[in-house]
Recover the amino acids of this structure.
DNA sequence: CGACAGTTTGAAAAAATTCAACGGAAGTGG
DNA sequence: CCACTTCCGTTGAATTTTTTCAAACTGTCG
């Protein structure tokens, strides 16, 4: 535990904007988009809602900087975090075809997002591919959701948490952040909600992974010490026999 | 149990095609579509695959009659039923943007489906709304998936099974079938896979719901005896205190 | 400082799974 | 037509996993 803490201490993770320019909707750049449609920038403080379930659906949002979570809330009050969104992610797509948003989007830290008016953005006939790209983005969202559903159905608590960390690491890496050392922007409760676990279970899983030496944990700061061991933990933990 | 069996015995559910014509992609009729694109009909025997993960993605399929399941399979062999599809449902949308299908689609009984070549179908400029309708269909799919994810995260085994039965009933009703009396086309294993439960747990949940008088079960034949009680079972079973 | 939100840990309880066995239904082949 | 196999569903008992409940601890922020 002390060793882990020491490993954490050095070299705090960068928080700045990612290096690569945001590729919107699978290749179309934001600049290209702005040439044809008015795109507003919105800043969000930590905890602030980008939109809430029930508000009129009038825009998609592209995350430019910062981290958000999206939460589905049922009428009876049951709720679940449906995802954590970062630079390059498109928010609001699940509400296409509805008069109002179907979920909440909350900033987890200071965020900058681009507002893409919808459906006006579709009238952007100068970019004939846009609609097709949007469709592909939705399909990718479905695949991602299903992949997590499979994880929730077939993996143990420890495996889910390991898979979650690997996902965060991969997405960080794709944006030019460190994949081995990062700060989780969300609480244990949020992670538990997303993974269908209680927050105590998330904590225990992190503790166990740290005890195995896969990772070092200190509050929300995570350091991946042994990537392949973490990968092993995420997959079917088949014991040799 | 004897009483339930008696209740089941009478009036076996209809298996024929549904009454209303299939409304494709939120309003566009199949006839309209066929005017512009070649649409092939395919028949499937029970157990036959419509497509398999890894095969080249070249078409979407619209279910005309019969029932299918779609299964996501991970590289390590873990698999999950991602949904049960019936008349009017569109299959293959999750693979849009990929070179190959990302899941299996298996007929649960004799099926008839319409093959919609993709992407050629998009070239159908005579129907400008088609692409937009497709996008909306994808968004609806996301909402449906998330809604089930919420159910898996927040509901007990009994509640999930009750919710599942209510979903089947509602979809049957939407197609003109009986919502109160139907035959499940899938095994307990399939239901369990979809609901993230083991097949024994599904059986036990059905037994408990039957014991409460909500439903009568005999093999795959289900009769809903007390709809509001079943609804109560599906929602947070809050006891009066 | 003091309140507070978030995290950690332990122990007991609840829920679901695993393992094992049995029984019915359908299908196969003689 | 019957014997036989196989698949599917059901049930019980033991076990495992996760949750629940309770308490303590740690940073942060006003």
């Amino acid at each position: 535990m002390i060793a882990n803490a020491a490993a954490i201490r050095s070299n705090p993770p960068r928080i700045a904007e990612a290096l690569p320019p945001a590729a919107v909707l699978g290749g179309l750049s934001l600049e290209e988009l702005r040439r044809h449609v008015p795109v507003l920038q919105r800043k969000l403080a930590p905890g602030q809602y980008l939109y809430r379930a029930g508000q009129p659906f009038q825009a998609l949002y592209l995350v430019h900087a910062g981290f958000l979570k999206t939460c589905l809330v049922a009428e009876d009050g049951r709720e679940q975090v449906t995802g954590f969104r970062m630079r390059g992610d498109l928010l609001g797509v699940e509400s296409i075809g509805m008069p109002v948003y179907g979920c909440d989007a909350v900033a987890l830290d200071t965020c900058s997002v681009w507002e893409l008016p919808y459906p006006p953005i579709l009238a952007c006939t100068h970019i004939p591919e846009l609609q097709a790209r949007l469709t592909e983005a939705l399909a990718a969202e479905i695949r991602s959701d299903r992949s997590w559903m499979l994880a929730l159905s077939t993996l143990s608590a420890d495996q889910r948490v390991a898979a979650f960390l690997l996902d965060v690491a991969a997405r960080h890496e794709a944006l030019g952040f460190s994949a081995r050392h990062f700060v989780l922007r969300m609480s244990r409760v949020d992670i538990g909600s997303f993974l269908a676990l209680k927050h105590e279970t998330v904590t225990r899983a992190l503790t166990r992974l740290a005890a195995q030496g896969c990772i070092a944990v200190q509050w929300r700061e995570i350091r991946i010490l042994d990537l392949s061991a973490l990968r092993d933990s995420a997959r079917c933990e088949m014991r040799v026999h």
Observations:
- Chain A touches chain B through 44 residues (CB under 8 Å).
- The longest strand of chain A covers residues 59-65.
- Chain A has two domains: 2-14+151-234, 23-125.
- Chain A is about 35% helix and 25% strand.
